From TrEMBL:
Transmembrane intervals: none
CDD domains given in the database record: HTH_ARSR
Boundaries of every HTH arsR-type domain copy: 10-102
Organism this protein belongs to: Treponema rectale
The name this protein goes by in its record: ArsR family transcriptional regulator
Length: 102
């Protein structure tokens, strides 16, 4: 019952923002990047090697993910290390994977 009342409280603006969030998840490259960050912090170079893509292509998608609040970064000297922004991002990914696995 509590879930229903929370769903009823969501306004049009929140639904619009939710749709925008799911658009970010609609790109397979961004999903691959997020999935690669599920278990480890990685640099752009490590992500590009893992996904066999160019660094500029990865950097472009990381900018989108960062501006959407889905990834964060920290500097280690000259190296920029990326990770998932918080537990919600990994939860969304894991629930999606679980849903598709059923």
């Amino acid at each position: 019952m509590k879930k229903e009342s929370k769903a009823a409280e969501v306004d049009e603006s929140m639904l619009f923002n939710l749709a925008e969030l799911f658009k970010i998840f609609g790109d397979s490259t961004r999903i691959k990047i997020l999935h690669s960050l599920l278990n480890a912090e990685l640099s752009v170079t490590e992500i590009s090697q893992k996904l066999e893509m160019t660094q500029p292509a990865i950097s472009q998608q990381l900018r989108v993910l960062k501006s959407s609040g889905l990834v964060k970064f920290r500097r280690d000297g000259k190296l920029v290390i990326y990770s998932l922004a918080d537990e919600h991002v990994s939860l969304i990914l894991n629930v999606g994977i679980e849903h598709l696995s059923e």
